[in-house]
Amino acid sequence: MVETIKDELMKFENSNCAEDSIFFQAMEEVIYSISPLLESDPRYKSHAILERLVVPDRIIEFKVTWLDDNNKIQVNTGYRVQFNNALGPYKGGLRFHPTVNKGVLKFLGFEQILKNSLTGLPIGGAKGGSDFNPKGKSDFEIMKFCSAFMTELHKYIGPRVDVPAGDIGVGAREIGYLFGEYKKITSSYEGVLTGKPFMFGGSLMRPEATGYGVVYFTETMLEQELKEPLSGKICTVSGAGNVAIYTIEKLQAIGAIVVTCSDSQGTIYDSRGIDLKLVKEIKLERRASIKEYLDVYKEATYIPVSEYPEGGHAVWNIPCYAAFPCATQNELTEVDAKNLIANGCISVSEGANMPSTPEATELFLSNKICFAPAKAANAGGVAVSEFEMSQNASMQKWSFEKVDEKLKETMQQICKRVFLTAKDYGVEGNYVDGANIAGFKRVADAMIAEGI
Ligand code: NDP
Question: What is the pTM of this model?
Answer without folding.
Answer: 0.95
